[in-house]
Design a protein that fits this description.
heterodimer; A: 210 residues; Rna Polymerase Sigma Factor, Chain: A; Arc Repressor Mutant, subunit A; 2 domains; B: 220 residues; mainly alpha; 9 helices
Chain lengths: 210, 220
Amino acid sequence: MARGIERETAVTPSREYEKQLVGRALADDRLALRKLVELHKDRLFSFIWRMARNHHDAEEICQEAFLKAFASLDTFSSEYRFSTWLFTIGYRVCLNHLRRKRALTGELDFTALPHERHGALPASIESEEAGRLKELVWSAVDRLSAPQRATLVLFYRHELSCHEMAQVLELPVATVKSHLHRARHRLRELLESVTEHELQEFRNRAGAAG
Amino acid sequence: MRCEQARQLFDAYLDGELSGALATELGAHRVKCPECRRALALMEVSGHIVASDRDPVVLHGQFADRLLACTDRKPIRSWDRLRRGLYIAGPLAAAAVVALAVLGVFDRPVRFAGKRVEGQPRPDVSSPEHSAEAPATGRSLDEHLLEEWLKETQENLAAKRDSGESLQRHFELTISQMLDILKQARVASDGTDHVPGADGQVPASPPEPAPADDEDVEDL
């Protein structure tokens, strides 16, 4: 259902263009490095922020991921997309960050963090029911395990196939599918309190928005 | 279709992998079953929100500048390459040096590509005259050099073996000379050539003193 949704940030460069940029970056072309950053930073940050749920941490993780990618650019294989490779590095850095944070602060509870309010539509357009539903959905997403959250975000938000997700998460395709299915079912359990009226209201608004 | 069967198809349906006939069956069940309708609607709506909800935060505008400034400060790629190279080349070089030292290559000047008298300059293997030598044997220059090096190593080993043997002989000689000196000293001191343990026999009891003259006894 959601597979066909066009993302506003999904300006995906062609594989050939990415390959050219990587080749130029390897030859110390600063403009090519900048172009690679500009092309991928927003998508990577969006993914990492959904995982880390902290603006400052997400920026640091993104920076580290880019630096690691540039440091081992000569090992990049053109059989992958640059974005897939970059997301793999970013996810690994993010997991390490979450592990360190858990070691320092105990079990993470993202729902308790005072993070930024979600909102697809300006308050004047969005109904109270739709706004509440979004809050509920994102709080439920925050309560998923890291691999479940990652598969959900990559599948719906970044429109990655199960095969691509398997590359990013460095897991077998079957495991990725299992994480995705468990994530959906867990969300359904956590959203039991949602009323029929809220559901209907959201669907009407989403339908009207196109 | 029963609810149990319908729920097993939810994931395939949401993944977009359900075939036409089964999708129709599921749709029909969904219309008449409020529980399954609600469960599927919750999963669809949450997927829709995850997909389309705008991020409330954006990356800092100067992110690219800061990142590229970091790469300016740290020549990461070249340093990382060098570090990775050292990880591999360092131990290999050390192992090679140890192996060459064991083989005795450093004992004498290494003479590649032909015999060389010490003190003379090493022949330039890259010179055209030298490279012309190798094709005469029908082998490449590398093979030629390798053969020379092997020969050199074998000679070194043989020389080491010879020097070891001569050292052993020298020690044996020295010991026998010392034994001779000891024997002579003993003979000079007590008039006998017996040295305890020198011939590997149990030391004999001290010899009886020679009978003294009667006159001498009376004097005592």
